[in-house]
Amino acid sequence: MNKTSIAKVVLAYSGGLDTSVIVKWLQETYGCEVITFTADIGQGNEIEPARKKAQDLGVRQIFIEDLKEEFVRDFVFPMFRANTIYESEYMLGTSIARPLISKRLVEIATETGADAISHGATGKGNDQVRFELGAYALNSDIKIIAPWREWNLDSRTNLLSFCERHGIKIDSVGSNKFPYSTDANLLHISYEGGDLEDPWCEPRKEMWQWTRDIEDTPDEPEVLTLTFSHGDVIEINDERKTPAQILKELNLIAGIHGIGRSDIVENRFVGMKSRGCYETPGGSVILRARRAIESITLDREVLHFKDEIMPKYAKLIYNGFWWSPERMIIQEAVDKSQEFVNGFVRLKLFKGNITVLGRKSETSLYDENIASFDGNVGFEQKDAEGFIKINALRLRLADQLGRKL
């Protein structure tokens, strides 16, 4: 990339060590103006101090935006309609946030006439792929600067030395007491690095921030009812809430009961295995309740079809292809399936467990008269004989021919 052609860059900025160094590095290396963009997607910590930090670094245009509702409404909930989980365990909390950030980076670059965008993702991780695939999908001509793939500041020590040389103030850069790299938003909080890099090492009790240890949870269960409309939760205990409010409240309730922890070794898109720990309390409750409401409202083959395409859908999100045509086609099918996913699910939260107590819907396909052992309303039991024989035809033929596996 011709450095002299870059006059203005929009940086995804958190205010932490890495991105603060990147601001100064971009100014020095490219001689460009840096615009910072900080997204509030429910990470929980105060993000307004990022404005002061950016100002201290000489940044004149600073974007700090509350995107919590857009994040849950337009990204998390559509993903949940597919009951999406990557490799049977990971609820994609980090993955699903990246398309929104990419979208706003590109939009701000257009609004401000910037020549490029930049991010603080490392060359070993998935996020660089997610940010950049999203950006290219939305603006094929966008220029992207990824400092971790260019500079020689390849360690925390080097970053701190850079800060010292340039007078950059950093509030907290990690310690032996809390050595983990974390990422948080309204859907989850993740932990990587430190002693977690040994997959045999048990996570420290003090690491977990959103969920209680089972021994510290209440001795009385909590019962709640979720209301669904077209596959999305719209009410908790008959109280209407926005998508972001729903996820925030469920995070608090479920966290108290020790729900939502996971410890995973996952396969990164870039080729390596990585160990991460996650807390996704509210998401765990929603996905359990969604399974319950779909069990009575979805046609059997539609439900099975959704289960078959879900791993593909999850892989697309994990690998950064949210803005791809194949993801959008799958989304259309998934959304169409949710037309009749309406009703109520009653749940019990207790000692890390989510138990479905009941489900009901005016659009239910469950017929108590047909399902009952009493009587034959709507179902002739003698018809089962022909059904079984037709399905057994190939099996019987194989037996007759002596074809055994």
CATH superfamily of the largest domain: HUPs
Strand order of the largest sheet: 3-2-1-4-5
Largest sheet: 5 strands, parallel
Low-confidence stretches: none
Shape: elongated
The total count of helices amounts to 12
Compute the gyration radius: what is it?
Answer: 25 Å
Number of domains: 3
Structural class call reads: alpha/beta
- The mean pLDDT is 94
Helix percentage range:
25-40%
The CATH topology of the largest domain is: Rossmann fold
Strand portion, in percent? Answer: 15-25%
CATH class (first level) name of the largest domain: Alpha Beta
Intertermini distance: 59 Å
Query: Care to count the β-strands?
Result: 14
Element-level helix/strand string: EHEHEHHEHEHEEEEEHEEHHHEEHH
Under the CATH scheme, the architecture of the largest domain is 3-Layer(aba) Sandwich
What are the salient characteristics of this protein?
Argininosuccinate synthetase, chain A, domain 2, 5-stranded parallel β-sheet, 405 residues, Rossmann fold, alpha/beta, 39% helix
Q: Quick gist of this model?
A:
With 405 residues, this protein is of the alpha/beta class.
Description:
The protein is an alpha/beta fold. It folds into three domains: 3-166, HUPs (Rossmann fold), CATH 3.40.50; 181-298 and 341-360, Argininosuccinate synthetase, chain A, domain 2 (Alpha-Beta Complex), CATH 3.90.1260; 375-400, no CATH class. 39% of the residues lie in helices and 19% in strands. It contains twelve helices and 14 strands. It has a five-stranded parallel sheet, sandwiched between helices. Strands 10-9-8-13-14 form a five-stranded antiparallel sheet, with helices on one face. Strands 6-7-12-11 form a four-stranded antiparallel sheet, with no helix packed on it. Helix 1 (17-30) crosses helix 6 (156-166). The chain is elongated and about 85 Å long. The termini are far apart.
